[in-house]
């Protein structure tokens, strides 16, 4: 396996949201060259000048990664990490050509499922990797991030390609040495489904109630709905032959453990509600509903959660006629 020297690593993160800023800030703080690609030129200019501030229970620190709005300024990269909202992936792909060289690995660390099919429009199948991360981040303002929880990051090739695995191993070593514990797994899809089920059990409920991840555990109603939504997704994973390695009871406990570990975190969907942005509901609970239709499995709870999030989003999260 060829290890790319720290000083020669070329890594671009697409998306200056909570997770993108947290990861870029961590890498930059540890002395790794990293760039952020932002589609808004004015914001890119401000972030480049003002930097990124990361807050946690233990410390507060600043970092100044390179932030650009024009991908042509960066050229081909060793790794491109996609951290935009799932609904923005198709638009991002249109701007990625200049970042992709023969040896570039494009890694999606996004919520939801199915990103590899969109990324295949700009990269060969063997260049595409998928991942999940248990790191928690809340965007407090432009370039200001609360590091609200820590956990491992799992990486894997979308296809079983040895060269891709080697390049992912090199990336995992880099991320781990920068304080972002990462590992490469043989089959990433069980991990993708575990993360999907975690999001199924947390995101919509937090967006609809305004509760943090940890506060979901304080109410019988939210716990009951969480259990039902998780059960529907778990049943789908069994039907699709995804080996989660977990019983339903263990899956429910996994989601609750994540809620505890990221107790202060506002889920990405709750942050979308607060910031009046579109949500990823179609790629999480909505994806469960659509798969259920195709496989003949009913998913009434996930359908209800999806409809409520879509309706509230359309109404601007305020009922007409009420202040």
Structure description:
This protein is α/β, with parallel strands linked by helices. It folds into two domains: 6-186, Rossmann fold, CATH 3.40.50; 190-314, N-(1-d-carboxylethyl)-l-norvaline Dehydrogenase, domain 2 (Orthogonal Bundle), CATH 1.10.1040.10. Helix content is 42%, strand content 16%. The strands form two sheets. Strands 5-2-1-6-7-8-11-12 form an eight-stranded mixed β-sheet. A four-stranded mixed β-sheet has the order 4-3-10-9, covered by helices on one side. The longest helix is centred in the middle third of the chain and has 21 residues, at 189-209. The model has no long low-confidence stretch (mean pLDDT 93).
Number of strands: 12
For this entry, what is the oligomeric state of its chains?
single chain
Strand content: 15-25%
The CATH architecture of the largest domain comes to 3-Layer(aba) Sandwich
Q: Name the shape in a single word.
A: globular
Structural class: alpha/beta
Q: How would a crystallographer describe the biggest sheet?
A: 8 strands, mixed
* Fraction of helical residues: 40-55%
Q: Order of strands in the sheet with the most strands?
A: 5-2-1-6-7-8-11-12
């Amino acid at each position: 396996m060829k290890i790319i020297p720290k000083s020669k690593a070329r890594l671009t993160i697409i998306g200056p949201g909570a997770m993108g800023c947290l990861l870029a800030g961590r890498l930059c703080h540890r002395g790794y060259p990293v760039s952020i690609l932002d589609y808004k030129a004015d914001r890119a200019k401000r972030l480049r000048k003002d930097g990124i501030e990361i807050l946690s229970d233990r410390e507060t620190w600043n970092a100044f990664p390179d932030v650009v709005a024009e991908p042509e300024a960066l050229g081909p990269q060793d790794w491109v990490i996609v951290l935009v909202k799932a609904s923005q992936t198709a638009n991002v792909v249109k701007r990625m050509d200049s970042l992709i060289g023969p040896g570039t690995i494009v890694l999606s660390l996004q919520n939801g499922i199915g990103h590899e099919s969109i990324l295949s429009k700009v990269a060969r199948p063997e260049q595409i990797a998928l991942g999940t991360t248990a790191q928690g981040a809340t965007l407090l303002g432009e370039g200001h991030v609360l590091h609200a929880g820590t956990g491992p990051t799992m990486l894997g090739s979308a296809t079983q390609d040895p060269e891709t695995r080697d390049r992912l191993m090199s990336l995992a070593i880099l991320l781990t040495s920068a304080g972002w514990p990462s590992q490469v797994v043989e089959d990433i899809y069980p991990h993708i489904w575990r993360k999907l089920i975690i999001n199924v059990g947390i995101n919509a409920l937090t967006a609809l109630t305004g509760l943090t991840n940890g506060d979901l555990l304080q109410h019988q109603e939210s716990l009951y709905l969480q259990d039902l939504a998780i059960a529907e997704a778990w049943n789908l994973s069994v039907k699709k032959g995804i080996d989660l390695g977990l019983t339903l009871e263990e899956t429910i406990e996994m989601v609750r453990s994540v809620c505890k570990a990221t107790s202060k975190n506002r889920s990405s969907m709750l942050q979308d509600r607060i910031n009046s942005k579109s949500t990823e509901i179609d790629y999480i609970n909505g994806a469960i509903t659509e798969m259920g239709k195709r496989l003949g499995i009913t998913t009434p709870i996930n359908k209800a959660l999806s409809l409520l999030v879509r309706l509230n989003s359309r109404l601007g999260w305020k009922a007409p006629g009420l202040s």
